[in-house]
# Entry
Amino acid sequence: MRVKLISLEKIKEILNNKDPKFVEGLAREADKITKREFGRAVSLYAPIYISNYCENNCVYCGFRVTNKFKREKLSPEEIDREMKIVAERGIRNILILTGESRSMSPVSYILESVEIAKKYFSNINLEIYPLEVEEYREFFLSGVDGITVYQETYDRERYKILHLAGKKRDYNYRYETPERIAKSGIRMISMGVLLGLSEVAEDVHRLFLHIEELEKKFPGVEYSISFPRIILSQAGESDYFKVTDSDMVKLISLARIVFPRVGINLSTREPASFRDHALNFGVTKISAASNTSVGGYSKGGFEDPQFDILDKRSLNEIVNVLIKRGFDPVFTDWRRIENTVF
# Structure
């Protein structure tokens, strides 16, 4: 089944179907496809926040420029310490994150963090502010494997309401970011929407169309999908759209059926019980023992995080659960080589 066969009306119909047998059948089909394409492998990664300065005013984000809290930016020595702690736990796959501030986290600063990361990790990914093609090529040549960028919502009117100031307010520039990444040579692009910002079926449909468009233009790129959902207690329930666990099961299963070979990520913003369950219908990559605060691993706390972590299990606890459930935890599946432009 391809995305062009999944209409917006069909996605709405699936989300509105409350029959437990239907949901179970959808999940079972997704599980069968996942086993066929990925076996029992589940990749593990950890996020490392190096700066929380941001120039955007996104009403749903803890890092928004108008929020008053202690802003931090790690020095090279502090970055090295954070990365060493994560590497000593066994993780070899990381996601380096900053707030979206060019002035406080310039490309040169992030490139320096990549050089430090190469001492410890075989797979390096970034979640930073959108860049130009030549800047992404710098990261590609420095050894970066993948970039994560979320459109957040594909509803243009809601997008204006939710993004009040900053470069992120430019919907088109952000929408075109994955294409600029692909043109640079970077081989992995992770995309997603923040579920609950807008009408869910419409956002997911547009996300699917966006990925299909990119697959046609850049078939050599490896794509992955993330489905984070907004935490309503923090955002104000009246302003957003509720996304239930049942909705998540349907969306993750549907993503697997539509895109059999696309990776599906699930972060620690979801509770442990749901993350464990999600392994049975499509999820192939999970964060483990995460900290979403700047310098959080060395501090041992969760000061001013971007979002609250609901799955606070240790890496060993997660690995033991995976093994007990018959999955193969994968710490690294790439051998580091030098990226080059031909």
User: Anything to note?
Assistant: DSSP finds 14 helices and nine strands in the chain. The longest strand covers residues 41-51. The mean pLDDT is 92.
